[in-house]
Each structure stands twice: as C-alpha cells, then as structure tokens.
C-alpha cells in the first residue's frame, strides 16, 4: 500500500511539473502573420516580457515624388508609449533615407519649424503594422496599416536617434511602460522584427531573391556598459548590449525582466548592440507642442 502511494505521489509531482512547464515553454513561440507559429526567442521569456513583446510594431516608410512613386522604402520596428499614446521608433529611418536621396538624385531636404525633416521635391508617408495573429491556432490576423504622421524627432546635429509618430486611428496594440531603472550586468531583451532573404539563379543567370518578412525575435542580452557624459554625445545615456541583431530591429524596445522599456535599439555591429535610454526618449516626447 505504501509503495502504491509513493508511486502515486511521484506521478502527481511529475504531472504538476509538466503542467507548470507548459506556459513557460509556450512563451518561446508565437503565431505571427503571415508565417504562422514560430520561435520568437532562444528560450522561454519571462512572462512580463512575453506579454510586452506581443505589442511591438512594424514601421514602414514610403518615399515618393511626382515623377517616381517608389523612390525608396524603409522597414523597422517601433512601439507605443503607454503614457502618451505616441509611437516611438528610430529617427535614422527618415534621416538616412533623406541623405541617400540627396546623394543619389540630388533631392534636397529642409527642417521645418517643429524640427522635423521634410523633403524638397519629394514626400514620405509612414505606417504602423500589427502583424501578430489574433488566434494561436490559425493564421487569422489583425494586421492593418495605420497611417502615421511625424510629430517630433531628435534634433538634427545630435545623436538623439528618436522619432515620434502620431496615429489618427486607434492601433490594436497596448502601450509599453518606460522606466529609467537599469544596471550594468542586468539581463534585458531586445525585441524587434527583421527580414531575411536568400537567393538562387534562373537558367539565364539572373539572380532571384526570396525575402521572408515579419520575422519576429527577442534577443536576450546583458548590459555591458552605460555610457554617460561622453564628450561628442548629446544624449544622457547610451547602453551597450552583449548581442548583435539584424537590420529591422532599429526602433525596437529594450525590455527588462518586468517587461518595461529601459531603452530603444539604434545600432549594431559584429558583436554588440547600442540603445538610447528611456530618459532621452522622454526628452523628445516632452518637446511636442500640445
């Protein structure tokens, strides 16, 4: 009798472990349109991080002129600030494109009275996309392109690589809370979208590219350093993170284990990623004239 009870207790303990493990394991995967279920991290995410990263956005930018409706396009990540409702992303999607158009086509730009870059002889439009599926078992999706307008950006001539958008429609995503609390050695999560591609050659020797869109991932990193009082810098704090990321992650939130935004990703190299602090994001937000 005692032996049977021992076996029964052991079975119940094992079953309880399996049940408790399911939610954790599930937090390594998500259904993301149009690709269906996929891994969004190397290992299960802390529950608050998993919930927060569901709400990151794809930011698309289209640049056009009267003579060329497809001058250039950009594709990056963004998120909604919970307090203001504004959409945050990386400024260089706009600025670097303007410099490319200037060099390639001689198309100039100007800075308007609000400090926002505007094209001369061309225009641009930005959209926010919510590519996460509405069901974990189907590819039914809530994806929609929400038109955005630029309401603020970090001043030209500074490294405050922040751009702020406003949507005229209610976006089907929750805002993320920002925090200024962070420490060297802390584990954080760089959340973003990217595109990957491969190529092959047709019988005529032409290169054909296959691009996979809306690949979402959360890269676990450690804060290596917090750069402050750097002579050439115009921002309060820049974070150096241990892991590099792919193009498209620019503008993605850096989340702490509580799922709060400590920073926004702006650059990467072969070994590290760089992020601008929530304090510097707030500086740009505070510049918006109500």
What's the quick description here?
Helix content is 19%, strand content 39%. The protein has 290 residues and is α+β, with helices and mostly antiparallel strands. Strands 3-4-5-10-9-8 form a six-stranded antiparallel β-barrel. A six-stranded antiparallel beta barrel has the order 11-12-13-16-15-14.
What does this structure look like?
The protein is globular, with a radius of gyration of 22 Å. The chain has four helices and 16 strands. The strands form four sheets. It has a six-stranded antiparallel β-barrel with strand order 3-4-5-10-9-8. Strand 3 (57-64) and strand 4 form a beta hairpin. The protein has helices at residues 2-26, 47-53, 92-105, 278-286, and strands at 29-32, 36-39, 57-64, 72-80, 87-90, 109-111, 117-119, 123-129, 145-153, 162-167, 187-201, 207-227, 238-241, 253-255, 261-268, 273-277. By secondary structure, it is of the alpha+beta class.
Largest sheet: 6 strands, antiparallel, barrel
Report the radius of gyration as a whole number of Å: 22 Å
Question: What fraction, in percent, of the residue positions are helical?
Answer: 10-25%
Could you tell me the strand content as a percent range? Answer: 35-45%
Strand order of the largest sheet: 3-4-5-10-9-8
Poorly predicted runs are 11-21, 135-140
In N-to-C order, the SSE pattern is HEEHEEEHEEEEEEEEEEEH
Mean pLDDT over the full residue set: 89
- The count of helical stretches stands at 4
- Beta strand count: 16
How far apart lie the N and C ends?
75 Å
Q: Name the structural class.
A: alpha+beta
Coarse shape = globular
């Amino acid at each position: 009798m005692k032996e049977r009870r021992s076996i029964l207790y052991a079975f119940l303990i094992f079953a309880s472990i399996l049940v408790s493990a399911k939610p954790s394991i599930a937090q390594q995967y998500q259904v993301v349109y149009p690709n269906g279920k996929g891994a969004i991290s190397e290992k299960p995410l802390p529950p608050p991080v998993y919930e927060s990263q569901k709400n990151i956005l794809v930011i698309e930018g289209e640049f056009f002129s009267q003579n060329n409706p497809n001058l250039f396009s950009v594709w990056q990540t963004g998120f909604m600030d919970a307090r203001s409702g504004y959409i945050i992303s990386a400024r260089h999607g706009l600025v670097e494109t303007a410099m490319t158009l200037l060099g390639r086509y001689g198309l100039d730009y100007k800075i308007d009275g609000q400090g926002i870059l505007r094209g001369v002889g061309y225009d641009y439009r930005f959209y926010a996309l919510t590519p996460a599926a509405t069901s974990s078992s189907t590819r039914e999706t809530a994806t929609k392109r929400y038109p955005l307008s630029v309401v603020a950006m970090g001043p030209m001539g500074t490294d405050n690589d922040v751009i702020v958008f406003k949507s005229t429609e209610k976006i089907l995503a929750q805002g993320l809370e920002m925090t200024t609390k962070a420490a060297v050695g802390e584990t954080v999560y760089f959340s973003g979208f990217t595109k990957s591609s491969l190529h092959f050659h047709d019988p005529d020797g032409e290169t054909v590219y296959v691009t996979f869109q809306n690949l979402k991932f959360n890269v676990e990193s450690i804060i290596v350093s917090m750069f402050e009082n750097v002579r050439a810098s115009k921002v309060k704090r820049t974070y150096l993170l241990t892991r590099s990321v792919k193009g498209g992650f620019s503008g993605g939130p850096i989340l702490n284990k509580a799922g709060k935004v400590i920073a926004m990703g702006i650059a990467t190299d072969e070994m590290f990623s760089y992020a601008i602090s929530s304090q510097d994001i707030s500086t740009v937000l505070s510049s918006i004239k109500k």
